User: Which sequence fits this backbone?
């Protein structure tokens, strides 16, 4: 097993609750499914055999695919970008270049390199798009430093060689889940307050109806005999949607809150075993 870590910072990433997740993994299972792969913290930590991963974010999945098939070319693209000091003008020039690739449907190693580089130089590692699907996160004023750990990207590429990668709706992705498979759901989180926005990092967003549909899928897969785990905020709606399943709650840090006193919260892990 390689020691690999996420190649991007991702809002809602699971690095800080990995111990909680690993402590609750099923002892045995057949295929591993992760419908919302995001930064891949859980996948890279446990490196399951027979893994299938998915995300609706086409640019994210292109980066996984490029690391699987052409890691050296992705590394070269990031090195080229890191070869120039990143001032504000350079950041926005490359953001425009990346968005031109999105508009033209170009999914190649350079697009993947831009994806990784922009993540290191955009505000708070966010991935947010406008209603046209174009990346619109501002510059974070970071002028230097490497945007990657080269050996980590190489080792990720080696591990991904045996991973099946998909770019589907989560429901379509889970159609092949069978008895004794394990599915870990890390969907965009339900907001902690009624005034907060539902998390969105794709053009279509992920709102209340999607969360209801996800809960119905969870119940369907439970009937199929799959082993299921889901993480989310500790909010009333989760207890309503997953009533009857085991729900464990625990404290977490909220690193992006500007008010230091509000940098704590609670999350839950829902399991059916």
Assistant:
């Amino acid at each position: 097993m390689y020691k690999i870590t996420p190649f991007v910072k991702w809002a809602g990433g699971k690095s800080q609750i990995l111990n909680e997740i690993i402590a609750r993994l099923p002892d045995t299972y057949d295929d591993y499914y992760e419908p919302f792969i995001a930064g891949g913290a859980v996948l890279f930590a446990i490196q399951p055999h027979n893994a299938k991963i998915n995300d609706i974010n086409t640019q994210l999945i292109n980066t996984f695919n490029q690391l699987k098939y052409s890691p050296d070319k992705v590394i070269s693209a990031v090195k080229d970008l890191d070869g120039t000091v990143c001032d504000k003008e350079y950041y926005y020039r490359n953001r425009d270049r990346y968005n031109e690739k999105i508009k033209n449907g170009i999914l190649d190693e350079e697009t993947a390199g831009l994806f990784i580089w922009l993540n290191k130089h955009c505000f708070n590692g966010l991935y947010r798009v406008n209603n046209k699907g174009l990346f619109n996160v501002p510059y974070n004023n970071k002028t230097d430093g490497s945007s990657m750990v080269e050996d980590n990207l190489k080792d990720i590429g080696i591990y991904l060689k045996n991973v099946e990668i998909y770019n589907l709706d989560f429901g379509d992705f889970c159609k092949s889940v069978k008895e004794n498979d394990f599915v870990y759901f890390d969907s965009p989180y339900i907001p902690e307050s009624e005034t907060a926005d539902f998390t969105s990092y794709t053009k279509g967003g992920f709102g209340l109806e999607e969360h209801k549909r996800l809960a119905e899928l969870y119940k369907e897969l439970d009937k199929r005999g799959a082993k299921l785990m889901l993480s989310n905020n500790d909010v009333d709606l989760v207890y309503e949607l997953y009533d009857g399943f085991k729900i464990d709650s625990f404290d977490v840090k909220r690193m992006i809150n500007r008010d230091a006193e509000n940098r704590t919260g609670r999350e839950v892990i829902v399991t059916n075993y």
